[in-house]
Every structure is written in structure tokens, then in C-alpha cells.
């Protein structure tokens, strides 16, 4: 594990999983300490210099207050600079995809961007539910109720009450509790809910938006084609965006299915 320092002095941890080609930085999503993208990074390491980092407040990275999305953009800029290879490709998973798009819109040195299942909200009901969630999340975290924050998130993500109760008895629960404060960071990256049209319009790089052909059993409560609709809405805001559905199941896509699609996209000649 290596470290770089962000503009506000926060130490950000990262690993380089391969040194075989152009730089590709992986951006994790909600409740991810940096480990969720490792299988995908290892799959891609034969063709890319893959950099997998832990976002602030997660894994080996620090968490300097106050939080702002701009600070996370500065973290990503420091990680890209640490690779020493100039402009990098980006892959962002879930809310990490929203961060990747925000960083690109902000002008970071980025070549191509791929995002998987960014949870933008595309209907009035979904936007209203999102606003309720962000308000309740802020109150719950302020009260120090980390378990309550996790339950709010899991309900928003479509988990049933039985699934949430079962999750609380697994060995993973204590680790999730430690990551609960970062749920508001993910919420800030998503913003008001819908794709941020004005900012996405500034992303002139090619953008690939992927979704799985079937959803996650723990997200069964979400509307049908929730992620597909979000990808279509975001693609419509991007000057050069395309939505591709991959033959995989689950919110965390199988590298054997997602890896070839990403490789072809990132190595595509302009």
C-alpha cells in the first residue's frame, strides 16, 4: 500500500495492481473501503496500470473535516498525480461513478470514463424518496446512530426488513458500521438526485455507462430497470455517453463480464 497527500493534507491510501499499460484509477462506491474493486482491478492488471484507492474516511485513508465533494475531487487528483503517467482513465462503481463524473466535469486530467450503475433518481417519486433519505440520514448521523444510518441506506437500496435484520448478525456488520459516516459523502456525490445536467454537459470525454442485465437480490425493492433508467438519463446529458448492458447479475459486476467491455472501451482509438 502506498500513500499520497490531498490538497487539504488528508492522507489517501492506494495500491497499484498492475503496470502493463495506460493508467486506470478505480473509484469505489458506498460502504466500500477500497476492497470491492480489487477483483476487477486484478482482472484488468494485465492491460493497464491499475490504481485502486480508498476514498477518504475508508480503509487506510484519512478523513479531514469539513467534508465537501470538492475535497474528494482533490483526493482523486492527488491519486492521478501519484501515478506519474499524466492523464488517466477512470472507472467508478455506483456512487463512485457519480464522483468520477464530477471529477471529470471539474477538469481533472482524465482520458476516458466508465461508470457502473450510478444511482441517479429519474422519477418524481424517486427524487422525493431521495430527499427524505438524505434528510433522515443527516439527522441520524448527527445523533451518532450508525446502525440506524445503515438501515436507512439499505431500505433506500431496496433491501427488505428481513434482509436488513439478517445483515446485522453477519460478521460484516461491524465493518459496515465503521463506514456508515461516509454514507453522507456518497449522498453528496449524487447531489439532488437526478443526473446533474449542466455539469455532465461539460464532460467532453467518451463515457461508458454500464448496467447488469439482472439486479441484486438485496435490491429487489427497487423499481424495475432502476439502474438502466439512470444510465439512460445520464447518457442523454453527456456529449459522448453510451449505455451498455452487460450479461451479468448483481450490483457488483463479475469481472469476467465487465472486464472485457472496459478493456475494449479504454483501449479504443479515438
Summarize the structure in words.
The protein is an alpha/beta fold. It folds into two domains: 2-122 and 194-266, 3-Layer(aba) Sandwich (Rossmann fold), CATH 3.40.50.1820; 124-186, no CATH class. It is 42% helix and 19% strand. It contains eleven helices and eight strands. It has helices spanning 38-44, 69-83, 95-105, 124-142, 146-156, 161-168, 173-179, 183-190, 197-200, 226-237, 255-266, and strands at 2-5, 11-16, 23-27, 49-53, 88-93, 110-116, 207-214, 241-249. An eight-stranded mixed sheet has the order 1-2-4-3-5-6-7-8, with helices on both faces. β3 (23-27), α1 and β4 form a beta-alpha-beta unit. α2 (69-83) crosses α3 and α4 runs antiparallel to α5. It is globular, with a radius of gyration of 17 Å.
Weakly predicted, low-confidence segments: none
Task: Tell me the helix content.
Answer: 40-55%
Q: Tell me the number of strands.
A: 8
Overall geometry? globular
CATH superfamily of the largest domain: Alpha/Beta hydrolase fold, catalytic domain
Can you summarize the main beta sheet?
8 strands, mixed
CATH topology of the largest domain: Rossmann fold
Span of the ends, CA to CA = 34 Å
Count of individual domains: 2
Organism: Prauserella marina
GO molecular function: catalytic activity
Protein name: Pimeloyl-ACP methyl ester carboxylesterase
Pfam family, one: Abhydrolase_6
